Amino acid sequence: MHSMTTAEAMVEALLRHGIDTVYGLPGLHLDPLFDAFYGSRNRLRVIHTRHEQSAAYMALGAALATGRPQAFAVVPGPGLLNAGAALLTAYGMNAPVLALVGQIPEADIDRGHGHLHEIRDQLGLARHIAKFVARIRAPAEAPRLVNEALASATSGRQGPAVLECAMDVLARRSAVAFPDISPLTAPPVDEDAVEAAARLLGASERPMIVVGGGALDASAEVREVAELLEAPVLSYRRGRGVLPTSHRLAVNLPIGHRLWAKADAALAVGTRLFLQQGQWGVDDALKIVRVDIDPDEPDRFRRPAVALVGDAARCLRALVDELPRHNRPRASRAAELAEHRTWLAPKLAALQPQVSFLEAIRRALPPDGIFVDEVTQVGFASRLAFPVEKPRTFLSPGYQDNLGWGLGAALGAKAAMPETPVLAIAGDGGFLYQAGELATAVQHRIALVVALFDNNAFGNVKRIQQEQYGNRVIAADLVNPDFVKLAESFGVRAFRAETPAELERALREAFGLGAPALVHVPHGETASPWDMIMMPRVRG
Predict the structure, then answer these.
(1) 334 phi and psi, to 5 degrees?
(2) 142, 260, 288, 521: which could join 304 in a potential S-S bond, CB 3.0 to 4.6 Å?
(3) What is the SS3 assignment for 518?
């Protein structure tokens, strides 16, 4: 038993879980918690941001890059609401993020007195964007609830957790015991389902595999199954790098669309399969095997032929062991895939200037470097054309696809993995959502490199207005600062590059600085990628 405040108990519980960094923005309701952070400053790092959204995005980016839970702290009411977009994104991306949120004095919660930052039913609000929500009411509760929150965040279908604590409770002191942290247990593998999947896939003539974020920790197993089946592996955004782009069976979205039309079996690993089932179509001739740790996921669109509910790596390992007994002789599909790549090559080459800029980035960014996608023209193209060789090196915001997420997420990725080069791309519109965090990068010596692509517009909005609304352009054009001078005013080294060659040179120099850097890339019109993303129904 230890005599400590609730805040001190929360910090000690985080440390016992291996969380040694908290991203946050202090305020009155969190004073006891930040004082506890100070008391553990030799074991805990606090990175304070200039906006609550950025604290939450940094935790999200760190979680995506490392695969481990991360924590942030914000005040109640406007603090939580400012962080809400990042929590929503974490929920959509199944990311283990823990929010530590303040609250008004305990006796006055939900009474409408008009306290600073008071909000009605804060926990109820949080339940819409978090997997786990709880209120800590006493010091003795803190270790148990931190354990429960992190267990929820990291088990099954992962997701964000929210722990709320009133400001007076944070300062309350009493005896605290720390229960043992129970190891997480994966659900057992259903051997009958494995055999059924092996029989179905082994007998198929034209199988394919679709991987999502749930396959990021099953890279080796995906590769073995793919090679046994001679099955092309489709990844888009969250699953990029599960199978290296350079692998002979790796395919991107447009080729996957063509393959889907003729496939007789599809193995879906850790993916919602939204595009395929919701837009490309399904019919009775296509047998689907789903692998997902969430028991609710396989039946969401259409009941699959076989559902394997459990950890992707364990399920696929069992499938690797079972497949040889049922697998038909397999001819190489190299010639078929080469034909598809030949068809796609001129389409990608016409995606300019985005593809040339992406090629320059790929040459400058080491293979293990982390590329943080954004909602921008270069970002959309990157989801089709940027080579990715390792899991967790292509970070993309999932189905929320929220403009402006990237700078904060990239700062978090770099803070969590300081020895790994990290590049954030941004458009001029999204960059200014969090431009103030350049100050955070400088203050905390986070050596992030930003490539800022500037076309003086919310580019995708403008394209839609031009092409679908008779050029009735409104609220799409932007007036921007001098981004080089802006970055320099924060103490960030800045470059300007107008060509792919200049971009590559600037990035190489920027990565060598060991300090925050920004490369401003002004450009004009960009080719539309949407005919290779929003593709028509081909089945059903």
Answers:
(1) -60, -45
(2) 288
(3) strand
- How far apart CA 166 and CA 284 sit, in angstroms, is 55
pLDDT tier, 19 (very low <50, low <70, confident <90, very high otherwise): very high
List the chain domain ranges: 2-176, 191-338, 350-532
pLDDT at 236 over 90: yes
How many residues can be counted in the chain? Answer: 540
Cβ atoms of 394 and 252 closer than 8 Å: no
User: Cα torsion at 109, 115, 120, 121 (round to 10°)?
Assistant: -30
What b/e sequence results for 477-512 when a residue is b if at least 16 CB atoms lie within 10 Å of its CB, and e otherwise?
ebebeebbebbeebebbbbbbeebeebbbbbeebbe
Of 161, 39, 31, 156, nearest to 102 by C-alpha is 31
pLDDT score of 185 = 87
Cβ-Cβ contacts under 8 Å for 414 (sequence gap 6 or more) = 370, 420, 422, 446, 447, 448
Do you find a cis peptide bond into 143, omega within 30 degrees of 0? no
- Provide the pLDDT for residue 1: 84
Q: Considering the chain, what percentage of its residues have pLDDT values greater than 70?
A: 100
**Average pLDDT in the 408-415 region?**
98
The mean per-residue pLDDT over the stretch 117-124 comes to 98
CA distances from 219 to 68, 213, 463 (A): 17, 11, 37
Residue 50 has pLDDT above 90, yes or no: yes
| Residue 144 half-sphere exposure toward CB, CA atoms < 13 A | 10
Strand partners, 70: 97
Average pLDDT over residues 65-89: 98
Q: Does residue 186 surpass a pLDDT of 90?
A: no
Structure-block tokens of residue 117: 């930052």
Specify the CATH number for 350-532; select among 3.40.50.740, 3.40.50.970, 3.40.630.30, 3.60.160.10: 3.40.50.970
3-state secondary structure of 52: helix
What burial class does residue 433 get, using C-beta atoms within 10 Å of its C-beta: 0-12 exposed, 13-18 middle, 19+ buried?
buried
For 108-142, give one letter per residue: b (16+ CB within 10 A) or e.
ebeeeeebebbbeebbebbeebbbbbbbbbebbbb
Distances (CA, A) of 35 to 40, 45, 52, 55, 305: 9, 13, 19, 18, 55
Which tokens in the block code for residue 182? 């129970």
Domain covering 191-338 in this structure, CATH number: 3.40.50.1220
Q: Taking the chain, what is the end-to-end CA distance rounded to the nearest angstrom?
A: 63
The fold of the 2-176 domain, in CATH, is Rossmann fold (3.40.50)
For residue range 307-362, list pLDDT tens digits in order. Answer: 999 999 999 999 999 999 999 999 999 999 999 999 999 999 999 999 999 999 99
**Among 213, 208, 199, which residue's Cα sits nearest to residue 226?**
208
Mean pLDDT, residues 282-289 taken together: 97
